[in-house]
Amino acid sequence: MRILAIGAHPDDIELLCAGTLVLYHQKGHEVYICHVCDGNKGSMIYNSKELAKIRRNEAINSAKLIGANSIWAGISDGEVVLDLGSREKIIDVIRQANPDLIITHSPDDYHSDHVNVSRLVFEATYLANLKLWKTNYPSSDRLPYLYYMDTLAGVNFIPSEYVNISDTIETKIKMMMEMKSQLGWLKDMHNCDAPEFIKSVAKFRGFQAGVLYAEAFTQQKLYPQGLTKRILP
């Protein structure tokens, strides 16, 4: 399969569903990671232009750890809005990957960029498949399944499925540690130590799933995409 994970900022995917992406890679599936925003606001050290370049390189290096393709949607931090231009950018992201499965943010998250990315992905998932919707890329040839990943710290998220990441959590942490510019930012802004945060949330979800470490998801039901078999690993 072709798997596309779409997060708002460089580090969202790495924090929230990278363990599952590692499993897909290990099983021979093709993985795409899209960061919609360039991450140009998340620093007290660099200016926006410097930061955007740094975080794009960090995203590429993180994806390389699992042989994933890294995509940027061309939007700046805080500028993800529900308009036609943004929708078409997400349509083009989906068309580049032509995925069987999309994973993105929950509609009920703490950050406006996360919430709007979730909505835009929901809108674009079906539209990307329409040949008469003209954008910079040809239409996709399949209608993908759509799943929402956990929120940060699991706030306001009720999972319907879990993935056992006990064997991939260390690689997930390595992917996050490539986001070097954000490690200090997370500590200063949110008192968050990234590796500890990842293990704590995964342990919590693991308790729910009956394994050591887990990631949590829920499916967006999309006609005609019924689900008679498990798609998550």
What labels would you give this structure?
233 residues; alpha/beta; Rossmann fold; seven-stranded mixed sheet; 8 helices; 42% helix; 18% strand
Structural commentary:
The protein has one domain: LmbE-like (Rossmann fold, 3-Layer(aba) Sandwich). It has 8 helices and 7 strands. Helix 4 crosses helix 5. The longest helix has 17 residues.
Q: Which value, in Å, is the CA radius of gyration?
A: 16 Å
CATH architecture name: 3-Layer(aba) Sandwich
Calculate the mean pLDDT score and round it.
94
Query: Helical proportion?
Result: 40-55%
Question: How many discrete domains?
Answer: 1
Walk across the major sheet and give the strand order: 3-2-1-4-5-7-6
- The run of helices and strands is EHHEHEHEHEEHHHE
Q: According to CATH, what is the topology?
A: Rossmann fold
Query: Briefly, what CATH class?
Result: Alpha Beta
Structure in a nutshell:
With 233 residues, this protein is α/β, with parallel strands linked by helices. It is 42% helix and 18% strand.
SSE diagram, text form:
Layout: E1 2-7, H1 12-16, H2 18-26, E2 30-37, H3 48-64, E3 69-75, H4 84-97, E4 101-104, H5 112-127, E5 145-149, E6 161-164, H6 169-177, H7 180-190, H8 194-209, E7 214-220
Parallel strand pairs: 1-2, 1-4, 2-3, 4-5
Antiparallel strand pairs: 5-7, 6-7
